[in-house]
Each structure stands twice: as structure tokens, then as C-alpha cells.
Amino acid sequence: MKIAVIGYSGCGKSTLTEYIGKKRQLPILFLDKVHWLPGWKERPAEEERKIVSDFLDQHDSWVIDGNYSKICWDRRMKDADRIVFLAFGRGTCLLRALKRYVTWRGKTRKSMTKGCPEKIDIEFVKWILWDGRVRRRRRIFETVKRKYPDKMVCIKCQRQMKQFLIKD
What we know:
Layout: E1 2-7, H1 13-24, E2 28-30, H2 31-35, E3 36-37, E4 41-42, H3 45-58, E5 62-65, H4 73-79, E6 82-86, H5 90-104, H6 122-129, H7 135-147, E7 152-155, H8 158-167
Parallel strand pairs: 1-5, 1-6, 2-5, 6-7
Antiparallel strand pairs: 3-4
């Protein structure tokens, strides 16, 4: 089974990915770990693509968390047996990000590169509420929905998430 977990920042992609990976005993790849180097430095794009491409080549099954549309996006979506799109509202995502910050403040969470302690700043809040939801970004998700309707699951609220977890 190959599962791609995508969606808006703060919606719970990493938490869901870890749950699915443990439950189904699948190799997990957190794209935040691929993208970020210690100290919140961005990894060179070519290096990111190689890491993800190698992971895809080496595993017959997987669960991958994250959007990063420039990192093997088309291949991830095509190869996935299931695409889970977390489409929670802005307020919910912001509250979840704040809760994550309170929980992990000053520490590095499992889904992030060591040396990147949890933080929240005005840029990230702006990303959650506006910049991460601009029309161009929404179109990327809409294209996936149109291209892969049979393998896409869209979760918009906690009630739908609970139903998904019961069925999965």
C-alpha cells in the first residue's frame, strides 16, 4: 500500500501519517525532514528530489507526509494507491499549529529535522491563514482531485477524520 498524505499546514498530516505508518507497518517519509536542514536552512532542491526518488525506488509500500509540489509530486500522486487530502479550515489549522507549538516548544518533533525546534511566528501564521491557500496552491489540490478521483479521500473536519480512522 502506498499512501500520500497532503493538505494545509497545521491540519495534522504528520500525526495521521505516523498513525497510518504504525497501523499498517509502512515505511514513513516526512517531507519536512527532507526539505529542512538543521537551523531551519532549506536543502538544495536537487538533493531533495534525489532523497525522495531514492525512497520511492527502494520501497514497494510507504506513507509520505507533505505537499512540496516540487519534490517528485507527480510521481508520488501517480504511484499512491490512496491520497488523503486534509482540507481543514483555516481556524482549525491555526489552533492545531498553536497546540503543536505549546506541546513541542523548544524541542524538535519527530516529523522534523533535528536542529529545527518548533516555532511559530507571524510568517507561519500568515502562511496558515492566507499564503498557503492562495489560488495557485488550491489548484494543485484540485488537479489531484480531478486526476485521481478514485483514490482521493478528502477530509474536511474532525468528524470525517474519525470516520476515516474507523474505516481504515
